[in-house]
Design brief:
80 residues, 3 strands
């Protein structure tokens, strides 16, 4: 009898692989571009080396702030 099992795999990033330069992160395939709301960014900003702010924008005629970032792919999975 066959049994189907589902496993959840947790990725634990290697702290030694963090990139501390925004320029290097933009050219690294482990990093993906994203637009984050202020709240999303507040929850992730402590991940130094895994997320880099490219720019901060305030929407025209609004107080809504967003952040253009590059972040390691595992970070995007955790917020998605």
């Amino acid at each position: 009898m066959a049994v189907n099992r589902h496993f959840k795999i947790i990725y634990i990033p290697d702290a030694a692989m963090r990139i501390h330069s925004r320029e290097m992160a933009q050219n690294d395939l482990d990093f993906i571009p994203a637009i984050l709301s202020k709240l999303e960014y507040e929850h992730l900003k402590h991940l130094v080396g895994s997320i880099h702010v490219i720019s901060k924008r305030k929407a025209t005629h609004s107080n809504i702030v967003s952040f253009k970032v590059v972040m390691q792919e595992w970070v995007s999975v955790s917020i998605g």
